[in-house]
Amino acid sequence: MHRFTTLAVAASLALGPATSVLAQEIYAPNLAYRTGPFASTGIPLMDGQADYMTLLNDRDGGIGGVTVDFEECETGYSTEKGVECYERTKSDAIVTQPWSTGITLQVLPQTNTDQIPILAPGYGFSPMQDGRVFQWAFNPPASYWEGHSMIAQAISDGDLDNLAGKKIAFLHLDHPFGKEPIPLWEAMAAEHGFELLPIPVGIPQMQNQSAQWLQIRRERPDFVVMQGWGAMNATALQEAAKTRYPMDQFVGIWWAGHDADLKLLGEEGTGYRSISWSIPQPDAPIMADLQQYVIGAGKSQAEDVNSVFYQRGLVISMILAEAIRTAQEIHGVAEIDGPMLRDGLANLNITDERLAELGMTGMVAPFATACNNHTGSAGAWMLRWDGEKFVQDSDLLQGDADLIAPLVEAAAAKYAEDNAPWPVDETCDPQS
Amino acid sequence: MLYRIAGQFKTNYRADQALFPVSQDAWLLGLILICAWVAFPLTASEFTFQTLLIPILIYSLAALGLNILTGYAGQLSLGTGAFMGVGAYACYKLLTIFPWMNPVVAILLSGLFSAGIGVVFGIPSLRIKGFYLAIATLAAQFFLIWLFEKWAWLYNYNTSGAIQVPNVDMWGITIAGPLASSTTQYYVVLAIVTLITLLCINLTRGNLGRMWKATRDMDIAAELIGINLMKSKLMAFAVSSYIVGVAGALFVFLWRGAAEPNLFDITLSFQILFIAIIGGLGSILGNYLGAILIVGLPVVLNSLPELLGVEIKSATLEHLNIMIIGSLIVFFLIVEPHGLARLWGLIREKLIKWPFPH
Looking at domain A25-142+282-377, does it have CATH number 3.40.50.2300? Predict the structure, then answer.
């Protein structure tokens, strides 16, 4: 009996300080996918995200004096596991990073009741830009619709009327993620008189696209634009090389610019372009800090810290960290919760000066979010594979806001109508 | 001791053929039902509802549907996932075309669409058997998924190609959609699952069930003793697809809240087939045991390190999880190839004889 009392006292003593330490912490889980068919693209992104947060915790003691508990919950890119992770983390989490369009769609309707913001940088659902309808969802720094508008500008040398009479194949994953840009391409094709040829790749055929590329060889499109992910990209690039499709007429979205996929092709991939809202900067000051505090200390699992995806992971965590900081400033509280973080995400202002302070100049374009623009519209650059690595190929491009804003508003309004009763923030002015 | 059957006399045939000839079985079932209807809802958290209770019930129901076809009537099918999809899309269309419709009625009606399609794809079973039939149902699997992707009317021309569950009310309570509470959803699922299970237990013990078993064991012999094979097989397809369709509608409307076509992919069919096989083909109880093992255990294993305070990387945990579940499946199939239900049957028999085995 006596032993038990001592044990109990010892246990409560041990637990006591531990809980008080735990209280000074922000819980920002990441629904990671280091397993499953998309792991090859997931691992560098997750490494970048985790390393940035480790750096903040170890170098600065967290954000605003509070450490960030950046825990991963493995989903394997499966929607079912993603929802399990969401349910598992939502009681303490200040943010959900769903990492897949499927999980985003699933979680989106619940955010109004659970009051946890979704942060989906550069993915998710393009209409999320309309913050009046999607009050809890954020997809900075650029949406798919903006990305494809920029691709159209890049392949038409700045004037979309140059595309008149041409044929553009839109190679996409047959999945909500892949179908996202179709309405935008249809609108552009109708306005500028080019022919759009959507070519779907079913998930089972991701790694065998001979039928799709046979069609491309037969139709001879002037450009192939790819909305692909995971194993689909590597296969498409290899098929393009095999069918000798000119690489400089082949362009992908930011998730189709994975270094490892192109390293497999090497010289043969020369000329392939991918739009990207982040550019790797091996000489940026932050890389030296990472080397000192994280990689040198053996706290990183990363393999290639100069790859596009690893550095994009850093940018994504930077966006989250800046949002946390902004929220702390707005509310004057160090330990913020979900609704406070929403204010931070809606009032982000990443300027060139701020990027320089962070040591991340040039890694992402400056942008600012507002209640009616949850995307921030940073714009993006074209990257070109030079046979060994991705190099910058264009100046900063911007999506065509006049074209996109009405589409966003219509899609958001339809979503609100389909999910009625859906709360709409009336205090915020519409974008157009 | 607990299962002593001494003193339980049967004085007529009716009592001997009752659902529970041993009274302890009835007590046990009553206890489980009290747990499911009263104890769990009072104690469960949101997380338990959403990741354990509701999915286990829905997967059990789907496996029950497949078990009617494969376990009782002996017709191998690989199209379960697609038939679930038919139920889900039918329910979605019903509720968007007729928004005033009672959602439970819509869910029960959507099974009829799935039953109709199941019968159509069951017609080849009259000519082919075994693995060949599995391939024919595989065609249903691929064709229906293709249809869900290409036929935009099914998803109301949404740009994403996915279906989203709207908020649906019944008698003033929201039972589906983002505003529905987990407890309500759980009770609706539980009520439907209990009802269908009860129907199935009686169906499989009755005339139709005996017809199915005869067809399964030897169809030529069954035909010779006067069983109409066409009726028997097509009925099995209809009843099975009905249940699977209802499970599909529940799957999307009362649990997932949104669905894209590839959710109903072949992996879902396999998962349900595994539940049925590991639980035990030709048993009702097995479906529940199988679903607990395949659907519930991974979630529990994922929560274990946190409960024990062990720090472990999430990806590593996932790999461990897959290995543990995989080896457990192999272990159970070696220990008892006829599934978990048979394992329980053996334990029960031992308990009845204990402590004096002969």
Answer: yes
